[in-house]
Each structure stands twice: as C-alpha cells, then as structure tokens.
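User: Teach me something about this protein's shape.
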Amino acid sequence: GPVRDIVLLNAAAGIVAYRLSQDAAQAQLPIVERLRDAQADAAAAIDSGAAAAKLHAWAEATAALAP
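Assistant: First, the predicted structure itself:
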C-alpha cells in the first residue's frame, strides 16, 4: 500500500546515498536505476525480516546503554 511505498522510497534514498558515499562511480548510473535497485533491496530486507531484526537489535543495544 501507500505507506509501504513511502517507507521503501525513503529507504531506497538512504541506500542510494550510502552506496554513493562508498563508490563515487555510482554517480555515473542513472538515478532512477539506482533508486529502483535500492528499492528492491529495501523490499527484500523488509520481506525477509532482516530489517525488523536489525531494528530489534538496535533497540536492544540502545536500551542497554541507557542510564
């Protein structure tokens, strides 16, 4: 639905920015292609449960650091 679409678009933008920071040659690829690939990767992470697992691990780690 539309909420998932926005979540995927936001995640894709972050993934594209990260990949560009790691490899400047990414800038040579069309932005639409980079966003499409990153959106597919974001969807796979959500659908596989990897994104939820990472969020859970992050929440546990930050809770352990709280005073």
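Now, about its shape. The two ends are 39 Å apart (CA to CA). The chain has one domain: 2-65. If you'd like, I can walk through any region in more detail.
User: That's plenty for now, thanks!
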